[in-house]
Amino acid sequence: MVIDSDSPVPDLPGMSGRHIARAGADSFHSPKLLRLFTWWQETAQDHAPGFADFDILQHPMLAPHLFVIAPRDDGYCLRLAGEEYGGLFNLKKGHHWRRQSDDIMDRDFSLYLDFVSKQAVPYYSRGHLALHERDWLHFESLLCPVAETVNGPTLLGACARIGG
């Protein structure tokens, strides 16, 4: 994992192959991710926007790229996975990432989600991964904290394949 920011991004070996930084307008290769980031910035004034503030009917081009991750007592749960998310990460709605998991990727991703939730600002990552049936895939992802819940903010995100 390569940390591209001054923020105290934790060292997470289970997230190797990713570059992580606080999101900025110049971070994105995909205009779809920039669109979500722009929405978040325009909607967030002095606090993170609520989940109900996001209307998919105003952003239909984002639908295949969106994902929603909700906090749980022991980690996080994937509540929505668009086609692009499912195709890139091979995860389905209902997947859990647990802080105490024996799987280093699940554990470290849960800790990364904790970090983004506590920072209360969007974070950008890009990386590459290989799946058994595919060559290396290059991707970028955006996580935007929204809507306080009992367990913390829900994370609204988008991802896209990128060239290279």
Notes on the protein architecture:
By secondary structure, the chain is of the alpha+beta class. The protein has one domain (10-41, 62-161): 2-Layer Sandwich (Beta-Lactamase), CATH 3.30.450.20. It is built from three helices and eight strands; from the N terminus they run ββαββαβαβββ. It has helices at 31-43, 83-89, 104-119, and strands at residues 2-3, 18-22, 66-72, 75-81, 96-98, 123-130, 136-149, 152-161. Strands 1-2-6-7-8-3-4-5 form an eight-stranded mixed β-sheet, sandwiched between helices. Strand 7 (136-149) and strand 8 (152-161) form a beta hairpin. The model has no long low-confidence stretch (mean pLDDT 86).
Number of helices: 3
Spell out the helices and strands N to C. Answer: EEHEEHEHEEE
Overall domain count: 1
How many E strands?
A: 8
User: Low-confidence stretches at least 5 residues in length (pLDDT < 50)?
Assistant: none
Q: Key features?
A:
164 residues; alpha+beta; Beta-Lactamase; eight-stranded mixed beta sheet; 3 helices; globular
Quick take:
The protein is of the alpha+beta class and 164 residues long. It has helices spanning 31-43, 83-89, 104-119; strands at 2-3, 18-22, 66-72, 75-81, 96-98, 123-130, 136-149, 152-161. The protein contains 3 helices and 8 strands, in the order E-E-H-E-E-H-E-H-E-E-E.
How are the secondary structure elements laid out?
Blueprint: E1 2-3, E2 18-22, H1 31-43, E3 66-72, E4 75-81, H2 83-89, E5 96-98, H3 104-119, E6 123-130, E7 136-149, E8 152-161
Parallel strand pairs: 1-2
Antiparallel strand pairs: 2-6, 3-4, 3-8, 4-5, 6-7, 7-8
